[in-house]
Amino acid sequence: MAHNHIIPLDRLTAAMHLVVRGFGSHDEEVRLVAGNLIEANLTGHDSHGIGMLPRYAEAYLEGGLFPNRHVQTVVDAGALLRLDGQAGFGQVIGREAMALGIERARRHGSCIVALGNSHHIGRIGAWAEQATAAGLVSIHLVNVVARNVVAPFGGGDARFGTNPVCIGVPLAGRPPVILDFATSMIAQGKTRVAHNKGEPVAPGCLIDDQGRDTQDPRYSVIPPWGALLTFGTHKGYGLAVMCELLGGALAAGMTQRDADASKRRVLNGMLCVLLDPAALGGTEAFEREAAAFVDWVKASPPRAGVEEVLVAGEPERAARAQRSAQGVPVDATTWQEILEAARKLGVDPQAVQQAAGLA
């Protein structure tokens, strides 16, 4: 089992800024990319955190990721926007796309944002958090154009990506409800984390290259390739298909149907619906009923072994508080991969080590 480094937040931020500068990113892009990745680690989603940087470095070096790109408006129909991410850093493209959609939703009461051709937009919950901070409800369907990693229900090999779904709901005077999940049993990045730590994945998550059940995460990380399974059997599969049809074919004009596993870039399409509760004329009722329902659900007596009933978003906020105070765990294998990525980008790995306080 791999050893964990525990890196203070300020140290980790300084170290990751050094690495991201290796892409040639401008200062604001460095801040947004590093900040978004670290935020994923803080919320407990290491699968979408700084461990993605080695993959980003490979994508950049092969010509599949372009720094300092910004979102372009392809269609502007008022409350309907079609946007192109120009294969730029999704941490920048996602933020800009949401800012455009938020402004239109405030003006028109709602907005549909169809985003395509963005490099990996990371933890989708970040964009729901951006919307709920503006007082808006947001619904996100996302496809993934990269190596196939998830099998269709009943299928024996991978045919699409982890295709996340996310819904954010603001609550007056309290933190929002943020539902953010992959349509696979676990995110593909979690198999990378498990592989690097030398840990198995839970039963029922993965099949090997022969279509047999396995708990060995290597079948999602290194060839010969197996496949993740969708959650809830046919239900997660159905949602994954809809993410391809709506987040991919409709929003991005690009679906995942390429068996080439050699490309390292990760492109996302996202169909996002933004709604302003105030525009529906029932803000007071919405706020009252939403808060009352959350309170009603959380008042359920916990079962044996459960400390309290939680709603979506609460585990992430608890992890953020703990890791912000105590430091961010990064397994030694992932850290070495990040140092190697820094070297490939022309950044001195020793300087990264020193910035993180590990030299």
What can you tell me about this protein's structure?
By secondary structure, this protein is α+β, with helices and mostly antiparallel strands. It has two domains: 1-68 and 327-359, Hypothetical Oxidoreductase Yiak, Chain: A, domain 1 (Orthogonal Bundle); 69-184 and 230-326, Ribosomal Protein S8, Chain: A, domain 1. It is 40% helix and 19% strand. It has eleven helices and twelve strands. The protein has helices spanning 9-21, 27-42, 53-62, 90-108, 125-133, 188-197, 234-250, 283-298, 314-326, 332-344, 349-356; strands spanning 4-7, 72-76, 80-84, 110-119, 137-145, 165-171, 174-181, 206-207, 213-214, 227-228, 267-275, 328-331. The strands form three sheets. The chain has a seven-stranded mixed β-sheet with strand order 2-3-4-11-5-6-7, with helices on both faces. A hairpin with a 5-residue loop joins β8 (206-207) and β9. The longest helix is centred in the first third of the chain and has 19 residues, at 90-108. The chain is globular, with a radius of gyration of 20 Å. 48% of the residues are buried.
